[in-house]
Amino acid sequence: MAQTWEKGLSCAVSCAACNGALAPDEKRILSVYDHRPICMACKEEEQGRPDYEAVSREMLGQCMIDTEVMYGDPGGYCFYHFYPFTCKSG
Ligand SMILES: [Zn+2]
């Protein structure tokens, strides 16, 4: 159960924001706005949004509450919004 999100998110084959292809060993990161895996270029753009800091803070708090029930590893999932990862992680 804890691996469910990891497969879908960490091994996404394309960026959810720009649809650019993502190789398995290419770094990706989760959007704090919609939790979808995006490429690093799109993350940089996201970080430039004026509400990014507020949204990410709120996301993290809510994420820890929500995912503790759904997944076994809320920290891993929630922090992938801030730390890039690849399909091969773990
Ligand atoms: Zn992208």
Mean of all residue-level pLDDT scores: 86
Number of separate strands: 2
Would you tell me the structural class of the helices and strands?
mainly alpha
Q: In DSSP terms, counting alpha (H) and pi (I) runs of 4 or more, how many helices?
A: 4
Terminal residue distance: 15 Å
- Mass-distribution shape: flat
Written as H for each helix and E for each strand, in order along the chain, the element string is HEEHHH
Major sheet details: 2 strands, antiparallel
- Give the C-alpha Rg: 12 Å
Q: How many domain units?
A: 1
Task: State which percent range the strand residues make up.
Answer: 5-15%
Report on the architecture of this protein.
The chain has 90 residues and is mainly α. The protein has one domain (4-79). It has 4 helices and 2 strands. The chain has helices at 4-10, 40-47, 52-70, 74-79, and strands at residues 28-30, 37-39. Strands 1-2 form a two-stranded antiparallel ribbon. The radius of gyration is 12 Å and the shape is flat. The protein starts with a helix and ends in an 11-residue tail after the last helix. Residues 15, 17-18, 20, 38-39, 41-42 line the site of zinc ion.
Notable features of this structure?
two-stranded antiparallel sheet, binds zinc ion, 90 residues, 7% strand, flat, mainly alpha, 2 strands
Brief write-up:
This protein has helices at residues 4-10, 40-47, 52-70, 74-79; strands at 28-30, 37-39.
Topology, element by element:
Elements (H helix, E strand, L loop, with lengths): L3 H7 L17 E3 L6 E3 H8 L4 H19 L3 H6 L11
Antiparallel strand pairs: 1-2
